[in-house]
Amino acid sequence: MTPEEYSKAAQEVFNREGMFPCPHCGRTFAEEDRLKMHLKGCKPSQPAASTPRSETKNNRGATPPKPRTVVCHICGREFGTKSIDIHVPQCAKKWEEREGLKLPEERRPVPQKPEVSPEMSPE
Fold first, then answer.
1. If residue 38 lies in a helix (H) or strand (E), which one and from where to where?
2. For 112, which DSSP code?
């Protein structure tokens, strides 16, 4: 698995387990309270209001190459290949602390890391 494949798998885990989707338009939110606020104005017939960040393009011409990064499967942010191993345990702890403030029936487990083949590490 290449770093790009790992990042794609991590992004899918984050989108599936870490985000709250709007049942009307499909827009996703990292915080449940943001979804609740969105639902006050979103109607079932309303089309999706925004394009996911991954689909937006920079119209300013050629962009310089990005440093090599991987996506955190918990928060969806990009990190350098050396710092992701430091970030993930801290991010998991923050997730558990935030979920611990919720009622037990509303709590979600920490999203599981995508499977990595033995010949590939996320570096």
1. helix 32-41
2. P
Backbone angles phi, psi at 38, to 5 degrees: -60, -40
pTM value > 0.85: no
Residue with tokens 């979804």: 35
> Which of 57, 53, 67, 66 has the alpha carbon at shortest distance from 11?
53
pLDDT digit string, tens, across residues 31-44: 888 888 888 888 77
The closest of 11, 123, 121, 113 to 68, measured between CA atoms, is 123
Strand partners, 21: 28
Query: Which residue's entry shows tokens 């109607």?
Result: 43
CB 81 within 8 A of CB 68: yes
Cα 22 to chain centroid, rounded: 15
Separation of CA 11 from chain center: 5
Cα(112)–Cα(31) distance, integer angstroms: 18
**Which of 4-13, 22-31, 41-50, 109-118 has the lowest average pLDDT?**
41-50
- Distance, CA of 87 to chain centre: 14
